[in-house]
Amino acid sequence: MLTTGAFAAVGVGAVVWPFISSMNPARDVLALASTEVDLTPIAVGQAVTVVWRGKPVFVRHRTAEEIQAARATPLSQLKDPATDQSRVQRDQWLVVVGVCTHLGCVPLGQKPTDARGEYQGWFCPCHGSHYDTSGRIRLGPAPLNLAVPEYSFTSDTQIRIG
Amino acid sequence: MRAVRNLIGALALGAVASLGAVLPSPARAAGEAIAIPDANFGFAGFFGTFDRGAAQRGLQVYKEVCSACHGMYHLSYRNLLEIGLSEDQVRALAGTFTVMDGPNDTGEMFERPARLSDRFRRPFANELAARAANNGAYPPDLSVMAKARPNGANYLHALLTGYVDPPAGFTVADGMYYNAYYPGHQIAMPPILNPDQVTYADGTAATVDQMARDVATFLAWAAEPETEQRRAMGVKMILFLIVLGGLTYAVKRKVWADVKH
Amino acid sequence: MAIGLHDSTIKNPVLRWVDQRLPVFTMMQKEYGTFPTPRNFNYFWNFGALAMVTLMIMIATGIFLAMNYTPHTSYAFDSVERIMRDVNYGWLIRYVHMNGASMFFIVVFIHIWRGLYYGSYKAPRELLWILGVVIFLLMMATAFMGYVLPWGQMSFWGATVITNLFSAFPLVGEHIVTWLWGGFSVDNPTLNRFFSLHYLMPFVIAGVVFLHVAALHITGSNNPLGIDPKGPQDTLPFHPYYTAKDSVGLIVYFIVFAFLVFFMPNYLGHPDNYIPANPLVTPAHIVPEWYFLPFYAILRAVPDKLGGVLLMFGSIAVLFILPWLDTSPVRSMRFRPVAKWALFLWLIAFFVLMWAGGKPAEEPYVTISRIATAYYFAYFLVILPLLGRLERPLSLPESIAMPVLRGGGPVMAGAAAKPMEKA
C-alpha cells in the first residue's frame, strides 16, 4: 500500500516537473551570446548603455574626480558596503548592470542631461534611489548596489560581458 | 423607511458614479505639473466633432513638415478618406510616396508608388537610424501621440507654440531647445513651425498657432478615429438604457407593491 | 439519495423529461425561484449580481479580443491598435474590456465593503467570505496579467516592478523571478505565458464564483439588520422580488459603464501605455492601475523591500482570518456604535492609500501612507478583537419583519435601530 503510494507520488512528480521546468528559460534564451563592447569611442566622463541578456549594462569612463569621490567614501556610510576597488577591474572603467536593485527600473544618469542624483552616479526615477560613482546605493529604497556583471578585458580597448 | 432605503440605494449607486471623479487620476499625478493652456478644440467635450477642414490642413502640415522625422505607422492612406478627402485626392497623395514591395517573379524586391492600402511611409528604417540622423534623439511615432500624453491635443498645441527664450539662469544643453511646456523644458526637436511654413489651399493664414491647432486636430483624429462614431453610439445607448431603466423600475414597483416595507 | 428518475414538478413535457434525468430546472427553481431571501435588502445587495454580470461581460469581450490579438513583443502593440482601427467594432469591444476591468473592481470593492459593514463574513458565512477573498486575489492576478498584454510602457514596467517583488524572498527569490519571466527580463516568453494565463484565469474565477454562490445558498443571505430570518414572514422568494430589484440596479450600472466606455474610455488608464514598451527607457513615474494603488501604497510605505512585500500580501491575507478577528456576535454595524466609526475610518484610510499610491515615493506621501497602513492593519488586528469585548452593541430587533411592520409589540429595538439606517 505504502509502496504503491510512494511509487505513484514519484510518478506524479515526474509528470509535473516537465511542466514546471518548461517555464524556465528555454535553450535559445540561455544561449544568448556574451556581448563585446569597444571602449575606444567612450571619452572620459561619458558612458554608454549596451544590452546584455535583455538588460541594459552601463559602461562609464570615469573622471579622476569620480574615482576619487568613490574611493574617499568610508564603508561605514554605505548601505551595502563594498570598496570601489572590489567593483572595478581597471580604475577608470565602471561596468554595472543598469537595473535598479529596488524594483528593476533603469536609473537615469547615462546622458549628460540626465539627473544623476545626489551622489553624481545614477538616479532611479521610479522610487528615488541614488547611486554613487561606483554604482553603490546611497539613498532611497534600493537594498543593494548596482550589480557588477561578469566581464573581462579582451584587450585594452575591448571588454566582453558574460 | 422607504425614503431611507431609497437613499441608501442612491448612495450605493452614486458611489459607482462618483468613484471615478474621486480617484487620483495617474495622468494628473505624474511628474512636476506644467499647466497646459486649453486650446478650446471643437472635438473636446462629450459631443464634439472633428473640424474636417482643420484636420485636412493638419494633414498638410504633417506631410510637409513633421513627416520628415515622425512616422505615423498605424495609419494607412485609405484612412484619410475619413477626414473628407476624396478617393482621387488620397490616391494622388499616396502616389507621391514610394514603398518597397515584392519579391516579384524573379525574386527581387522592387519599389512602386504607394496605394490606398499601404501604411504611411516611415521616415527612417528603424529607431537606430532615426537616432543617428537626429543627434541621438528619437522622433516618436505620432499615430497615437494624442492619447499617449496627458491632455493630448492641448499639450501638442502648447508644445508646438511653446518655444520661448529660456528664463534667466537656465542653461540649455547643446543641441537642445527650450520649450515652456515640455517636461524638463529641454527638447531635442527644433522650433520647426515658422509663419507661412505651408501654404494652405483654402486660404487660411498659416500662423504658427493656426498650424499647431490644425496639426493637433489631425493628430487627435488619428489617435482616435472612432471618436465620432463612439459618441453617437453612446448617446443612443444611454438613451435606450434610461428608457429601459424606467420600464424596469416600473416593473420593480409593481412587483413590490404588495410588500410592506 | 434514491436511485431512479427525479420526481419532477415541471409541467412542460420536454423540460420534464430532461428534469427527471438531470434536475437542473428543479435546481434553478429552488435556488433562483423560490429561494427564501431576506425581505429587507438595500441596494448594496445588488453588487454580487453586478459582479457576476461583469465577469460574463469580461469573458465574452475577452474571447473576441483574443481572436485578433497577437501575443508577441513585436506585434502585440500593433495588433491592439489594429483592433482599435480596422476590426469592425473592435474599439467597442476593447474599450468595454478595458473599462470593464475598472468597473469590475469598483463593483467588487463595494461588494466587499457591504460584507465588512453588515458583517457578512461572520459565522456561519466564513467559508463564503474566504471564497470571496480567493476570487478577489484571482481577479487581481488576472487584471495584472491583462494589463501587460497591450505591451505599452506601463504594461512592461508594471510587469517588471511586480514580478520583481518575488525577488525579495531570500534564497529562492531570484529563481522564482527567472522562472516567472522564462528569461532574464520581462520579454516575449513572459508576454506569451501571461496571455495564456490571462485567458485561463477567468474560467477559474467562474469556478470559484460557482462555489461562492453554492456556499451562499447553504447559509442563505445576510441582510442589513444582520439577524437571521425567523420564518416566512421575514423572507421573500428570490423571483420575482429580487430579480426585479437586481434588474433595476443592473440598468443603472450599465448607464455608468456606458458613459465611461463611450465618453471617457481612457480616463482611468494611463497615457504612457499608448507608448510601445521599451526595456531601455523607464517612464518617469510608474503607477499601477488605480485599483492596485492602495496595495501599492502599502508596499512603498515600508523602507525594507521584503517587509513591504510581506505587508502588501498581508493586507489581503488578513481578510482570510477576519471572521475570527472580529469577536463581536453582532453582525450589522447598524448596532455597533463604536465599530461603525472605526470602519468608516478604515474606509478613509483605504482611500488615502489609494491617493498616496498614485503619488511619487517622497514626503509627505510616505509618512501619510505609513499612518494609513498602520490604521488599515490596526482595524483588523487590534480594534476589532478589542471591540468585540469592550463595545456595548445596541439592542437588536426581534425579527426582520418587526421594524418593518411596526406592529404594536416591542418596538424599542426597532426604534433604536432606526436612526442608524441613515448611515
Automatic annotation (TrEMBL), chain B:
Pfam families, per the entry: Cytochrom_C1
Signal peptide (UniProt feature, chain positions): 1-29
Q: Which residues form the Cytochrome c domain?
A: 53-223
The protein's matches in InterPro entries, at most eight in alphabetical order, are given as: Cyt_c-like_dom, Cyt_c1
The record lists the membrane-crossing segments as: 233-251
Q: Which UniProt keywords apply?
A: Heme, Iron, Membrane, Metal-binding, Signal, Transmembrane, Transmembrane helix
Specify the domain of life of the species encoding this protein. Bacteria
Keyword Transmembrane helix tagged: yes
Q: How is this protein named in the record?
A: Cytochrome c1
Automatic annotation (TrEMBL), chain C:
Cofactor(s) listed: heme b
Q: Which residues cross the membrane?
A: 43-70, 91-113, 128-149, 156-177, 197-218, 248-268, 306-325, 337-356, 368-387
The residue stretches assigned to a coiled coil in this entry are none
Q: Which UniProt keywords apply?
A: Electron transport, Heme, Iron, Membrane, Metal-binding, Respiratory chain, Transmembrane, Transmembrane helix, Transport
Q: Where is the Cytochrome b/b6 N-terminal region profile domain?
A: 14-225
Q: Which Pfam families match?
A: Cytochrom_B_C (PF00032), Cytochrome_B (PF00033)
Source superkingdom: Bacteria
Q: Where is the Cytochrome b/b6 C-terminal region profile domain?
A: 228-398
According to its record, how does it sit in the membrane? Multi-pass membrane protein
Q: What does this protein's record comment on cofactor binding?
A: Binds 2 heme groups non-covalently.
Q: How does it assemble?
A: The main subunits of complex b-c1 are: cytochrome b, cytochrome c1 and the Rieske protein.
What family classification does the UniProt entry report for this protein? Belongs to the cytochrome b family.
| Task of the protein | Component of the ubiquinol-cytochrome c reductase complex (complex III or cytochrome b-c1 complex), which is a respiratory chain that generates an electrochemical potential coupled to ATP synthesis.
What is the protein named? Answer: Cytochrome b
What is the species of this protein? Falsiroseomonas tokyonensis
> Upper taxonomic classification of the species?
Bacteria, Pseudomonadati, Pseudomonadota, Alphaproteobacteria, Acetobacterales
